[in-house]
Design a protein that fits this description.
α6 runs antiparallel to α8 and α9 runs antiparallel to α12. The relative contact order is 0.09. The protein has twelve helices and no strands. The protein is mostly helical. The chain folds into two domains: 87 residues, Orthogonal Bundle (Arc Repressor Mutant, subunit A), CATH 1.10.10.60; 116 residues, Tetracycline Repressor, domain 2.
Length: 253
């Protein structure tokens, strides 16, 4: 058991020189390279989801044999790690040289970018919890997050806790939002149509209707004419609460 766990902890495409810019030798299939394979993998994951992704399916999309892909990666896990880091490369990061930027604005920007990434790529949240996330784009994002949170003025021992509070919240919010949108798409409805239909169904059940009635005042006070507006308002307010919490901890010294 311990031996297997040790192998798992070390297993990463980013460790041990496993990442290859090209193939294994001069006889690799023409028209392929690691960047192209990774890009098509991301598009396929977006279109069909993580459960349907396979080396055989990817090879068919690239119009090559499945064995051709192994000139560039050793395993399917290696390829999924590459796709995960490629997605992190889409994040717009603040300029570290901008000394006049407010850390609050930068933190909100990073959180908003991460939320959008999780929603845009529903498969990402599962992979982010599966792998070490030590690719160059993921590490670049992590460095920017640490830099911004450290500028808030927290003591060193509180930095990782503040990062966890903000970005575990964003991870959870973005993951749930992506699951909701997947259900909506599967039902063939718009988010607003799905929400309206769900509310009508809930009101027909006495127990559920009672619970809903208890929260109607809160939901009305939140406002928002569309599902997107409601989600945005909840996300923004929750993020403001977390920023205010960091400020309060800094004041406490």
């Amino acid at each position: 058991m311990a031996k297997a766990a040790g192998r798992s902890a070390r297993a990463s495409v980013w460790l041990g020189g496993k990442v290859r810019r090209g193939g294994r030798g001069s006889a690799q299939p023409s028209g392929l390279d690691r960047e192209r394979i990774t890009g098509v993998s991301v598009r396929l994951l977006d279109a069909e989801g993580l459960d349907r992704f396979s080396m055989r399916r990817l090879a068919a999309e690239l119009n090559v044999t499945a064995m051709s892909l192994y000139w560039y990666v050793d395993t399917k896990d290696d390829l999924l790690e590459l796709a995960l880091d490629a997605a992190f490369g889409e994040l717009a990061l603040p300029d570290p040289a901008d000394g006049a930027a407010d850390w609050r604005d930068e933190l909100r920007g990073l959180a908003t970018e991460y939320r959008a990434l999780l929603v845009r790529h529903p498969w990402l949240s599962a992979l982010a919890g599966r792998y070490l996330n030590i690719g160059p784009n993921s590490l670049g994002f992590s460095r920017q997050v640490r830099r911004v949170v450290r500028r808030a003025g927290l003591p060193a021992h509180g930095v990782t806790g503040a990062i966890a509070a903000v970005f575990q919240f964003v991870y959870g919010h973005g993951t749930i939002e992506s699951h909701f949108l997947a259900r909506v798409e599967g039902a063939g409805l718009t988010p607003d149509e799905y929400y309206a239909q769900a509310m009508r169904s809930v009101r027909q059940d006495p127990d559920a209707a009672e619970a809903l009635q208890e929260s109607e005042g809160i939901m009305e006070a939140r406002g928002g004419d569309t599902v997107a507006e409601m989600l945005d308002r909840d996300f923004t307010f929750a993020l403001d609460l977390l920023v205010a919490g960091i400020e309060a901890m800094v004041e406490r010294g």
